[in-house]
Each structure stands twice: as C-alpha cells, then as structure tokens.
Amino acid sequence: MDEPSPSYPHTQQRGPEPTIEEDSETETYQDLEDPVIKEIPIILKSTDPSERLLLLQYPGRPSTRPFTEKNRILEAREKVSTDVIEVDVPIDTTRFYDPLKNDNWGVVNKQTLRGVMNDSDGYYVASVQNGELVLVPVSKSAQMRPAFNYIDKEVADKKEVSRLENGSNGNGHANSSVQVVQMTVKSTVDNAPRLGGALLARKKADEEDFVHLNWNDLNDDETKNARETALTVENKHELNSSTTNDEYINLLVQETIVE
C-alpha cells in the first residue's frame, strides 16, 4: 500500500517590507504634536556705550515682596573701578528686631545689601510691542546679599581700644622698654604687595571710595520715562536665524555630553 507523501507547510515569499521615510526638513507644522501657531519677529536694540542697564538680583528676597513703595531703596552707591554696588533697604522693626543690638551697632532702621557686578553676556530685557519681541542687552548683573558693615566696625573699634590699652602701663604712660630694631635694605620688588585673587580684589575695593547713585522707585515718573526710552526702538532690524533645526539640536546635544 502506497503511503501518502508527507505534506509540508506552504510558504509564500513576500517582497520587501514597505519603508516609511521621514524627512525632518519637509515635516510640516501640522504633523507636530505641539505645532507653532504664531511666529514673533525679534528686534535686538543697540545700546549707547555710555548708558548701562544693570540687573540687580536679590536671592534672599521673594518676588512677592519687591523693594518698592514703603520698602523702596533708601540709597544706592557704587565703586566704579571694582564694580562693587551697595543699596540700603528699610528694616521692619516690628519683626525679628533687637533694640539692644541697635544701640550697640547703630543700625537704626536700615540694612545694607552688597554685590559685585559681572558682565552679563546673553542677558536681555524683553518687551512685546505690537507683535514684536524687543530685546535690550543687560550690561552687568549682581546678586545682592546682606553686608554686615556695622559688625565689622564694632570689631575694628574693639581692636583699636585694645591696642590703646595695651600701649600703656596702666598709669597712662607709654611703655618705655628698649626695643632692638634691625634695618634691612630691600628693593622695590620685595616691597611690592604679593596679594592675589580674591584678597587683591578685596584690598582694591576697600581702598576705593563710593560714588552716590540716584535711585528712583519703580512707579516714579522718572523710572517710567527711563523704561520707555530704553525699550523704544527707532531703527528696527529683524533678526533672522541662519541655524537649521538639525544644527540647533546638535548644539544642544553637544552641550549635554560629559567628556
């Protein structure tokens, strides 16, 4: 009896799988999950070198409590060469205030905030005007933190009193003990200060005098006029980026790579 020949599963050859080519350059806004609904022209205003736009930041002060109105800046001053800036702000004497310390330090009702101004490349003040984004570059910025000058003064006064007391014998006469002084000759190079870095910067700042700055409150007419002048653009030059989307993404990726 003939046995039936074995049957094998029938296979069918299929052609290559269809591929979907995505071209990021030709991708339309409608295909994006977050489409662009409006484009805003960017206007970069050129500033006068003689004018400065300073950004003062207050890390210890919440944005809900700005230094305006009854808490307005009392006085401002700067050291031009060393870029040190100080402002005096009022103190709320009804909260966390010790009148005994006030008598010792002479703080009265104000506190001094100090900062060092640094160049601020890439910082701008922005304003949307008539559908255009106007950018004004910031000259310098500083983070303002409390300066305890009154404590430094108290320490200096105590040292001076101690020096005067140690300079006498207790009866008002200066100490007349004989001291041997050795004279040496040094060149001007040897006498030159050897401070560097932060110590040298601090020494220069201490030796420089402050220059008074006129300060106007946020809602003063002078401030409103200055704001309008700073943000007014007469000759508009629209910025057009020459960077493609792929180039921009590559720049972002390169910045996140840690070598």
Report on the architecture of this protein.
It holds the Pfam family RPC5. InterPro entries: RNA_pol_III_Rpc5. Residues 1-32 are annotated as: Disordered. Residues 19-32 have a biased composition (Acidic residues). This is DNA-directed RNA polymerase III subunit RPC5. This protein is α+β, with helices and mostly antiparallel strands and 259 residues long. The chain has a domain at 40-162. Helix content is 24%, strand content 19%. The chain has helices spanning 99-105, 149-166, 188-191, 198-207, 221-231, 245-256; strands at residues 42-44, 54-57, 75-79, 84-90, 110-116, 118-119, 124-129, 132-137, 140-143, 145-146, 211-213. The strands form three sheets. It has a five-stranded antiparallel beta sheet with strand order 10-5-4-3-11, with no helix packed on it. A hairpin with a 2-residue loop joins strand 7 (124-129) and strand 8. The chain is elongated and about 85 Å long. 5% of the residues are buried.
